[in-house]
Amino acid sequence: MNQMIWVVLLPFLGSVVCLLVHRKLVFALAMAASLGTLAVAAGLVAHVWEHAGARVELGGWAAPLGIALQLDGLAALFLLLTAVVGVLVGIYAGSFFAQTSELRPMGIHFWPLWLLLWGGLNGVYLCSDAFNAYVLLEISTLAAVGLTVLSGSTASLVAGLRYLLAAMFGSLMYLLGVALLYAGTGQLDFVLLSRSLTPQVHVVTAFGLMVFGLLLKSALLPFHFWLPPAHASAPAPVSAILSALVVKASFFLLLKIWFVVFDSLSGEGPGKMPGQLLGFLGSLAVVWGSFQAVRQWRLKSLIAYSTVGQLGYLFFIFPVLSFSHSPPHEALAWGGTVFHLFSHGLAKASLFLAAGCLLRAMGTDDLHAMRDIAGRMPVITFSLGVAGVSLMGLPPSAGFVAKWMLLRAVLASGQWWWAPVIVLGGLLTAAYVFKILAYTFVPSQGDAVRLQPVSLAMTFVPLALAMLCVLIGFRADEVILLLPAVPGCEMSAGGGGGP
Amino acid sequence: MEILSGTLCLLGAFFFMAGTVGLIRFPDSLSRIHALTKADNLGLGFIVLALVVTSQSLTVAFKLILIWLLALVASSSICFFLARKLIHRG
Amino acid sequence: MNLTLLFDVFLIAALLLVSWRLLGASDLFQATVLFISFGLFLSLAWIRLQAPDIALAEAAVGAGLAGVLLLGTFKGLEPEEDREGENLSSEACRLDPISPCPGRAHLLLAFTFVGSMTALLLLAVLDLPAEGDGLTLLVFQSLDRSGVEHPVTAVLLNFRFYDTWLELGVLVAAALSILCVRNRLDLRELRPSKVPDVMLRRLVMGLTPIMILVVVYLLWLGDHAPGGAFQAGVVLAAMLILLWFSGHASITSLSRILWLFSLIAGFAMMLLAAVITASWPEMRPLEFAEEWSGAIILAIEVAATLSIGVVLSSLAILSLGAVED
Prior knowledge:
Number of strands of chain C: 2
Number of strands of chain B: 0
Helix content of chain B: over 70%
Oligomer: heterotrimer
Number of domains of chain C: 2
Order of helices and strands of chain C: HHHHHHHEHHHHE
Strand content of chain B: under 5%
Largest sheet of chain C: 2 strands, antiparallel
Shape of chain C: globular
Structural class of chain B: mainly alpha
Helix content of chain C: over 70%
Number of domains of chain B: 1
Structural class of chain C: mainly alpha
Order of helices and strands of chain B: HHH
């Protein structure tokens, strides 16, 4: 299973090469690295499908001393999502940075930073060590901030600085928690930590600090303030990456911390409270984020607020699983959450990329200016529509499967009070999706903006992402079958032991 | 040896003290810099000497003296830069 | 024993006093100077905690480099016309002109947060087991298989090689991000804001050989004593900044490609080691054969020193330098 490390090595290799070669070769080499990473990720999914998870001890040093990589179903799915979105966004970005002259030569920094970010994200998915996770989060954060400020506009600099400060603060809180755990147990490995934790004051404090830091980084409601400006002011491919992938990495780590490291703590007795709290914040996010999205008049701000809202759905897994550990709800909750991750990742990438096309064509992303776009840019409008359908959760899209499973999981665990939120969120989502679409159909009154040409790659990548989002809805069974290897269910896969 | 190094240490401390008193008591920036750099260099010299006397090996003694020389160069140059800035400002 | 206790009490009091004054400072210059002295006290505290490696790093980065960066930023915040002698109020720190920062509500929120955090951390630290010394014993047991003699180096460059490699990646990401912020492709044409004078040029010229000696010494020391790539890299960075500041040839004279090469040398070297070990059939990723590990670690440390020095000095030059018209 040593090829696992290649999902980290290939993007890093691409990053280093892209930094050094001539600017004409950059795109080809970056795509080579991207496709290679996609191939390795697909291979890892196949491996989990056939043999279940695997663990690799780096440098041959066993767990308490060294660092291990751990592959399981959840990690494999995240790797696949990142690779699919990564390759498609890469194709789009090649055309985007070649065409958009105002992004100047700085576009050349996109590739090294993005590949560095990709390697960091893949590292997070395979990570099995609390401190290593911190370093990986740092590398992803710094690269993501660099990408945010790529355009160099004042708005993006302010947004980028705010993003940097919020994310750094989150990382430091997480690190403080890790330090407490290490001081208490002398362990850093996730599996070994989970075996040696007992409910003491310092352990609970560490739990709180780590969860708080990761919530800040994954922009759950009261901590969402940094997200909309950063995601709205970045160049389109960067917004797609940030919204579809980067926030999800912190969420992935949160899942690992919650369900692997602190499983004994968060599951029972008084541990129900934090789960309910996260569910509550999640439902607030669903309602507030979607409501704010409805109120926006700039397309990219609207999509960014929609991310705040959609991220809220991810947090229903915590109350559902902390209430009852019975297999049917568990499979439903995991399935729903992972499906939501997939559908949101693909749909949001599609929306941001489509918004980038519109911005390119019209010179603005003001909704009022989008008159008669449906007639003049049908493919883009169609992508917006399809991705919007998936966000709303209408059948047959993946979004529908996700929300349906979440709804059933919530009801089956006897916590009916989350169900209205899920439904209300869907309605609000429908409201803002129709708000976008409605403007594209308003006939122009003769004074319509003259459209700049948009390249084929930029037109069809959003469509491909939106179509994938629908198609994956038909593959629900396979995804659920992969998931029994999720961390919460299969602890014994981790080897560990003495040196 | 102990007594010698102790005496040297105390002597160094006395010069440091004098430098600090000068820093606080002198009226203007130029004379403050003067007090600080002159007295402190000497103070550091005595303390380094005290450590050299008690040091185990020749290499350690050599390193200590090197540190003193470096500090001497650095502090006198910085004193010069500060003083020139002050004079230029008038 | 009592004397050291007295020293510790003084040190803690000084740390608290300086940080309190720092928070209360209304003048950014004063706050910067206090921050530098805070860094120095902190490195003393690390020495008292018997962590000389961290003390070196803290003194060099926390007090030295961070001070340079803060002073550079402070200069950049100054209004265009030279208003000497006039204090810069904290109003100038605002990035976002709309929201009043910090308002009364912000302060209250911050104090509540900091107060409850302190209480919580105190409780947590008091709750920690007293005898735990982490993995120290395990590290010493495995030291003879690591290829080096100093435990910190063994942890950084063998047991937890992956972490160190990624940290160098963080440095690369930081350098590239700052380039994006400054809207530049390389460092050429960046000059210090003042014309360097003869005295400074001579001084730096005299100091450079000594600094090179210190870099090599610290690097070599890392094998068996506190020191190593990071500390050596910071000294290298200081040297490069001084050379640049006094008008000598420094990294700003490098072409873009050479500069990028030295920027990523450490990261790329470790990547190379990772790629080779990962494609070697009967080896685990990042596993070094025992007889080779000493040499590999040394080679990586040299490259890492170069990268750390170049990245840190680039950060300073990018934030201090100005383009001549």
